[in-house]
Specification:
Blueprint lengths: L12 H4 L11 H10 L3 E2 L12 H10 L6 E8 L5 E8 L5 H11 L9
Antiparallel strand pairs: 1-3, 2-3
Helix pairs in contact: 2-4
Length: 116
């Protein structure tokens, strides 16, 4: 019996020397913070679209490690079983926008171990 061999695209030398800059990926923290700075608000289900699967932990990190304060409003949203689920909607007050922008610039920098 013949073993199946995986088919992976080979990288050619011309691809390795391609001068096209690789687009910088945003971190989860940067994506969520940018959303808040642009006037958005999120609950845990809406944060999924930004790649955040645990918004309360992201908010805790932004508060604890970066000193930001968020507005928290409880709301009830429909769940897949037809009833309502309590969630928290987070938003950034105007008074925090300047500080949040500084935090965003810090968390958006490429770490030294990822730099080319």
């Amino acid at each position: 019996m013949k073993k199946a061999t995986p088919s992976f695209p080979e990288s050619s030398p011309s691809q390795a020397n391609d001068s096209t800059p690789t687009p910088k990926r945003k971190t989860k923290l940067a994506s969520v913070l940018e959303h808040f700075i642009n006037g958005g608000s999120l609950n845990r289900f809406e944060a999924e679209r930004l790649g955040d699967h645990c918004l309360n932990s992201t908010i805790a990190a932004l508060c604890g490690s970066h000193g930001l304060a968020f507005i928290r409003v409880d709301e009830r949203v429909p769940n897949r079983f037809g009833s309502k689920t309590r969630v928290t909607r987070y938003s950034l007050p105007e008074t925090e926008l300047a500080r949040a922008s500084k935090v965003l610039s810090r968390v958006s920098k490429t770490p030294h171990w990822m730099a080319d």
